[in-house]
Write a structure and sequence with these properties.
The protein is built from no helices and ten strands. It is mostly beta strands. The model has no long low-confidence stretch (mean pLDDT 95). The chain is globular, with a radius of gyration of 13 Å. The strands form two sheets. A six-stranded mixed sheet has the order 2-10-9-4-5-6, with no helix packed on it.
């Protein structure tokens, strides 16, 4: 089964940028839609952005224009470029199939903390 490992998180000031990576142990080419999710303390996990095999993208309104998702099917990696970060972007970020049905097990995620 594909395993997912997220990285690239950290502590950044408001207005800063981070680039998250999600490395899969197996091929993600067969997964049509991959996405980045996030979970803030006390809140449910939410889908932030997704990308299809043909590079069609979706963004939740709160990140549109600031985040960019991309995928490299050869490197089996999904990326999330996050610019103009806000304190409300603070969360643990995960990647997985969209929707997460019959999906790989969730990874440990990567913590993003944005200070004001």
């Amino acid at each position: 089964q594909v395993q997912l490992v997220e990285s690239g998180g950290g502590l950044v000031q408001a207005g800063g940028s981070l680039r998250l990576s999600c490395a899969a142990s197996g091929s993600i080419f067969s997964i049509n839609v991959m996405g980045w999710y996030r979970q803030a303390p006390g809140k449910q996990r939410e889908l932030v952005a997704s990308i299809t095999r043909s590079d069609s993208t979706y963004y939740v309104s709160s990140v549109k224009g600031r985040f960019t998702i991309s995928r490299d099917n050869v490197k089996n990696t999904v990326y999330l470029q996050m610019n103009s970060l806000k304190p409300e972007d603070t969360a643990v970020y995960y990647c997985n199939k969209v929707p997460p049905i019959s999906a790989p097990r969730w990874g440990q995620g990567t913590q993003v903390t944005v200070s004001s």
